[in-house]
Amino acid sequence: MFRVEQTHWWYRALHRLIFDTLERELPDWPEKAILDAGCGTGAILKQLGNEERNVGVDLAPEAISFCYERGLNNVRQANICALPFANASFDAVICSSVLYHQWVKDIAGAVCEFYRILRPGGLLLVNVPAYGFLHSAHDDAVMTARRFRISEIRALLLENSFAIRRLTYWTTLLFPFAVLARTLGWSKTGRDFPAAGGPPGFADYFFATTMALERGLLKKLSLPFGVALLAVATKQVVSQRQD
Q1: What are phi and psi of 120, to 5 degrees?
Q2: Distance from chain centroid for Cα 202
């Protein structure tokens, strides 16, 4: 991830989708306190900037080390199911490509923690892989425990008192290629990107161009299927019952 996050077509598309969403849903996000929950090697956290307000957490010490290598000091080692922050500490939480992981033992518990640390009306942005039948050698390599459908994410958010603003699949235009590649086992190395670096080839250019087109579509509408799934929700304040 550290090697390819800033150059690989999929990561670039993911990061642009996240920041497009922030611009639309939280236009003043540069002035807000944002948690990158499961920050990995820190590519998104780096783009968020504002180290005084924003924080990244990850369970893997290797991830924290890579964040330091990026020059990030606003990172902490922590489990997203037990976040070390006070209630209502953040205006937004980004949880990108995390809930799928084998190390996340309690998905509902993690979403409950996001609710706890968000301020009233705070924004939650979640990205997860979609459709269990797309599980491949790449999923094994990156320790995928689960892939999701919209109905599952919708139920998870509603059960934890979030108001859903948007649910959409994405990587839709490349979905047929993903089905062929993953169900026929074309990714023999166990990853969706090569083990060694090198100049981008025609495939990278084609995929990047296709994702740029899809990015334009996603600004106008939600898509009915895809390789991944984006959820956007806000924290509702649930009034306590008066007995």
Answers
A1: -50, 130
A2: 27
Whole-angstrom distance, CA of residue 58 vs CA of residue 76: 7
* Distance, CA of 94 to CA of 48 (rounded, Å): 11
Number of separate helices (H) and strands (E) present in the chain: 8, 7
Q: Are 137 and 185 in contact (CB under 8 A)?
A: yes
Strands (E), the chain: 34-37, 55-58, 75-77, 90-96, 118-129, 162-170, 228-235
**Residue range 63-111, pLDDT digits in tens:** 999 999 999 999 999 999 999 999 999 999 999 989 988 788 899 999 9
* Options 3.90.1700.10, 3.30.70.270, 3.10.129.10, 3.40.50.150; CATH of 9-235: 3.40.50.150
> pTM of this prediction?
0.89
User: Tens digit of pLDDT for each residue in 12-61?
Assistant: 999 999 999 999 999 999 999 999 999 999 999 999 998 999 999 999 99
What is the DSSP pairing of strand 90-96 with strand 34-37?
Answer: parallel
